[in-house]
Amino acid sequence: MDFLYILATAIETAIGPIAAVYALAAIGLNLHFGYTGLLNFGQVGFMLVGGYGVAVSVSTFGLPLWAGVLASIGCAVLLALLLGIPTLRLRADYLSICTIAVAEVARLVYRAEFARDVTGGVYGLQGFASAFYDANPFPRGDYGIGDISFSARDLWMMIAAWGLVLVASVVMWLLIHSPWGRVIKGIREDEEAVRSLGKNVFAYKMQSLVLGGVFGALAGALIAVNQQTITPDQFMPQVTFYLWAMLLLGGAGRTLGPVLGAVVMWFLLTVFDETLRSLAATGVLPFLQGSDVGALRHAMVGLALLLLIVFRPQGIIGNRKEMLVNVK
Amino acid sequence: MSSDATEVTAGGPAPVDRMAGVAATPGVAKPDPILKAHGVRRSFGGLTAVDVEHLEVQRGTITALIGPNGAGKSTLFNLLTGFDRVDAGEWSFEGRRLNGLGGHRVARSGMVRTFQLTKALTRLTVLDNMLLAAQGQLGERVWGAFLRSGWRGQERANIERAEQLLERFKLLDKRHEMAGNLSGGQRKLLEMARSLMVDPSMVMLDEPMAGVNPALVQSLLGHITALRDDGMTVLFVEHDMDVIMGISDWIVVLAQGQVIAEGRPEDIRADQRVVDAYLGAQHGEPADAEEGR
């Protein structure tokens, strides 16, 4: 077993474009849950409409890439309104039930036969992001230190993705440390009280849902651009639960919580995957097949979440005192 | 509202005199009502929770709303403040119709409520709880939030006002603590201070003494009387008869959703219908009946 190789692969994943995508989507979820207290179990739905916003605009309608990004933002706003108008006036549980259902319905609609002309159905769409890679300023080759290395393509993608994560984090910090953020956090604590102080709670919850959804959509757009291909079945419900795991791991209600959570989670997942894979390859554990690794990974995520909730419920950088205020 | 307040404090008639000559009959008109409700009805399934034919609340007084359990006091509160929808009826506050307005718009119009189960925003600091209540904040708009220079000055003024109020309610040294770490009584005080931060002309207190330790009751009572002396109108729901009789200028008795009596504390104390409502009409042993007459 080559520990250095495993470590290098894990670091590559932890700072790679996929981790950035998840960080961005988790930032949206942090606004929903960590600050506003909205239980959104369908963040993947925003990623889906975001990814397809780019893919459909460019592949199907021949629009430029920037228009595609605008389209994915537009789709996210629309989805948030669609979700929010009927459910945000009701108790919190209704939103969570609807989000999980709507995300799944959206995936089924996008992969349906009748949508094939637009979305490509189950086969999805390909080759819509060349404009992005054509703009790559880095000459071909590998960049990195020691065993950690990225291609010029990955490096360009990482800069775009982590750049967006940075922008989103700054936006979040500014918003949360403003009177707007105070109202949002007040709604998390008790929306009736906030209403009794003359705030339009519905409007604030809607703003939060829209903005967090837009972050999710941008993450979806990044996935599409990164892979140059998109299929509906990448957007299964478990993506949302990975996001939740990352958010809780990093610390909900902290600006950098979701970012740290995504990085640490991808690091641990890769270490785990690679270790098991090399163990399986050497035959030390005869009962372990290479194909079992994927399933074991899900079990490990579950175990990790369990340990987290028992030993560090506030997450890595969460505030334990704040967390335990209501648990007396 | 502010001009009104100065009138009252500047040697106007003592609040009790405001009710001079008002007959102690249910639904009686007041000389200067701030709140007027007419035909307000709300039923849950087959049960009529509130059916108030006519009710007026006199400006600048402390009016208590009492009644046995299940009389509809809290429901009436929720209806008037826009936290529940009426089946029928209309009501106006300072001459403005409030029918169908959401709770936040009622609050903005100057009628601010508190809750029976205190709703301190537990994971916010005491100061943030206060600042949240300030009205017309530019930084509370999603785009305005980014323009720090736009709301800094406003924020500073609000902090100053919040600290003055916290000082008055003896919570100033707790201002950076999480509201969830306050005791039950302190939360009640915070909720009252927070409602004042809205700058209301009328405060609706839903059982302000519930769950407060007896040592704090006197201080809470003092604060409520101070609200009236500042020119505010107070309407409150309460169970404790001693408390009510001590500080109210006017008492409205609700039973089975209807106003069965209203009047000064001494009128209410002598009212047989009130005794019946509280103890049940069948308590009529001869001794009791004589006493009632």
TrEMBL record, chain A:
| Record's keyword terms, sorted | Cell membrane, Membrane, Transmembrane, Transmembrane helix
**Keyword Cell membrane set for record:** yes
Q: According to the lineage, what is the superkingdom?
A: Bacteria
Which positions, given as ranges, span the membrane? Answer: 6-31, 38-59, 65-85, 155-176, 206-225, 241-269, 295-311
User: How does this protein sit in the membrane?
Assistant: Multi-pass membrane protein
Q: What is its main location?
A: membrane
Q: Which InterPro entries match?
A: ABC_transp_permease, LivM-like
Stretches of the chain forming a coiled coil according to its record: none
Question: What GO cellular component entries does it have?
Answer: plasma membrane
- Where does this one sit in the cell? Cell membrane
The protein's GO terms of the molecular function aspect are: branched-chain amino acid transmembrane transporter activity
* Protein name (database record): Branched-chain amino acid ABC transporter permease
Q: Which organism is it from?
A: Marinitenerispora sediminis
